[in-house]
Structure formats: C-alpha cells, structure tokens
C-alpha cells in the first residue's frame, strides 16, 4: 500500500504541474489579447506596429535569457545561409500576422476578433492544398463549411462590425495559417527542424529589423508621442513592458503545454481558450453582442472541433 501512495504522489504533482501550465497559457494569452485591445482602442495608444515591435523586442531578449542562460531548451544553431533565409521568410509572414491582428483590435471587439481567428483551419487547409497539393479526405473539407458559414453569420450579426478591421483580421488569420504551412515546408528536413522556442529566438530579432523602418515610416514620431504620454501618465510605460513580457510568455507557455500534453488535448484546450477569451472580453469591455453573432461563433467552433476530429481519424486510417 505504501508503495502505491509513493508512486501516486509524482503522478498527482505531474497533473498539477500540467494544470498550472494550462492556466498560465490561458492567462498570458487572454491577458495579452485584452491588454492589446485596451491599449489600442480604449486607452488610445494608436500604434499597432510599434506595439508589435515592443513584443518582438521582448521576445528576442527573453528568448535569449531562457535558452542561453536558463537552459530551458538546448540551443539549436542556424546551419546555413539558406536556413537563415527560410527563417527570415517565416519571420516576415509572422510580422504580417501580428501587426494585422493588432490593427484589427483597434476597430473590432475581441469577441468578434476571436470568432474570425477560429477560421484558421480553413486557411491552413487552403494553403496546404495550394502549396503542397496534399489533399485531405473529403469529409475533412466538408467540416470546413460550418467554420466559414459561422463567421459569415457572426459578421452579419455583429453590432460593432467594421470592414477595414474585418479585412485586417482575415489577413492576420490567413498569415497565421500560411506561417504554419510554410514552417512545415521550409523546415521539414531533420537538419533544419527547430523547436518553437529556438525558432522564436531567431525570428524575433529579424522581425524587429522588419518592423523598425515600418514603424518610423508609418507611425511618425511614435517614440516622441509615447514619451510625451509617459510624462502625463507613467502607467503607459508599465503597460508596454508588461504587455511585451506577456507576449513572450504566450509563446513560452504554448511550447510547454505542447510538450506536456497530446496534440488532441492541445486542440481541445485551444478551442476552449478562444471561447473563454470571448466571454472574458465581453464581461470586461461590455461590447454589445447579438444572438446571431453568438450563434455564428458557436457554429464556427463546432466546425473547428469536427475538422480536428476528421483530421485525427484520417491520420489513424492512413
């Protein structure tokens, strides 16, 4: 009996650790989303490119600390100039995704932003078919119908619908899907595979290089304006520092949750996270929601669940 108790303690501790990781992932993910919305929309800090550059700068520094100093994962080297070009390409697409997503938050409520973001599997399937000519089973494509239909319904029933914000949100979702497909193609050989933490270590500084001229050109005098804001309200500096650190912890906790759970668990947790973000954002920002909009979002989530299930069954049968 004693032996069984001793063996059970590490298992319980392991489960508690995993639960803690999931809570940290949810908290950081929803936290950065809500704080982005607050800064860009409610607070009036209308510089999404500069905000993204702050995120990428924090990711660069904290990734180096986590890998080089804290040894959370072994450091993987870039092996060739070609591999560096591939990483830079991914970084450019990643920049486009994050910037577009942040721009959309200026014009759209978080709830609708998440509803559109749930269509990522649709764009992933489209890009995978175009770029790899890899076909899924027909039932997998059928499950994408409710994914898209749900967003169409949600768009029609969204009281705060904004066309430009919607286009930016679609662009962000498509770019996110394109990055995942490109990553599978570009870094597919054994010698080039990087875990997500090492990929972020190399992508984030490249993203800063891309974003710096874009910030200076498109968001003129943003540093001067931010410093002027800080003189009136020093909290803006703390908001930016905390928000940028959270952006890194989203990636760190995502990596750790992926490492400690199965792919299926991750998909289920991801769907639940999106739904929770919608509820929390509505409670905090009090944005109006219609029954039509909620029905549309629910249909999209059901479609995503069916898509994940169809993909899993297809893999098991092949």
From TrEMBL:
SUPFAM superfamilies documented for this protein = Multidrug resistance efflux transporter EmrE
Membrane topology of the entry? Multi-pass membrane protein
| Residue intervals of the Sugar phosphate transporter domain | 21-308
| One CC-aspect GO term | membrane
- Where is this protein localized, as stated in its record? Membrane
Family matches, as InterPro entries: EmrE-like, Sugar_P_trans_dom, TPT_transporter
Keywords recorded for this protein, A-Z: Membrane, Transmembrane, Transmembrane helix
Query: Where, by residue number, does the polypeptide cross the bilayer?
Result: 7-27, 47-72, 84-105, 111-131, 138-155, 161-178, 199-216, 236-257, 264-285, 291-308
Name used for this protein in its record? Sugar phosphate transporter domain-containing protein
């Amino acid at each position: 009996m004693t032996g069984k108790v001793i063996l059970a303690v590490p298992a319980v501790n392991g489960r508690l650790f995993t639960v803690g990781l999931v809570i940290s992932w949810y908290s950081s993910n929803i936290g950065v989303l809500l704080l982005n919305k607050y800064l860009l929309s409610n607070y009036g800090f209308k510089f999404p490119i500069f905000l993204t550059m702050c995120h990428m700068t924090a990711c660069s520094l904290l990734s180096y600390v986590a890998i080089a100093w804290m040894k959370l994962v072994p450091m993987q080297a870039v092996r060739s100039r070609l591999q560096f070009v591939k990483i830079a390409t991914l970084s450019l697409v990643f920049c486009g995704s994050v910037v577009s997503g942040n721009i959309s938050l200026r014009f759209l409520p978080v709830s609708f932003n998440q509803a559109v973001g749930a269509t990522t599997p649709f764009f992933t399937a489209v890009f995978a078919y175009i770029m790899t000519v890899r076909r899924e089973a027909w039932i997998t494509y059928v499950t994408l119908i409710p994914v898209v239909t749900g967003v169409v319904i949600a768009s029609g029933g969204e009281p705060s619908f904004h066309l430009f914000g919607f286009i930016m949100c679609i662009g962000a979702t498509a770019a996110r899907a394109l990055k995942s497909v490109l990553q599978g193609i570009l870094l597919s050989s054994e010698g080039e595979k990087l875990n997500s933490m090492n990929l972020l270590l190399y992508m984030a500084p490249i993203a800063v290089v891309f974003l710096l001229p874009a910030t200076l050109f498109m968001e003129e005098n943003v540093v001067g304006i931010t410093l002027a804001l800080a003189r009136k309200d020093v909290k803006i500096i703390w908001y930016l520092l905390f928000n940028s650190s959270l952006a890194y912890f989203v990636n760190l906790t995502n990596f750790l949750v992926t490492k400690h759970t199965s792919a299926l668990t991750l998909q289920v947790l991801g769907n639940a996270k999106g739904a929770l973000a919608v509820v929390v954002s509505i409670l905090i920002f009090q944005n109006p929601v219609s029954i039509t909009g909620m029905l549309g979002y629910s249909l999209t989530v059901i479609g995503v669940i069916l898509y994940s299930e169809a993909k899993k069954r297809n893999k098991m049968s092949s």
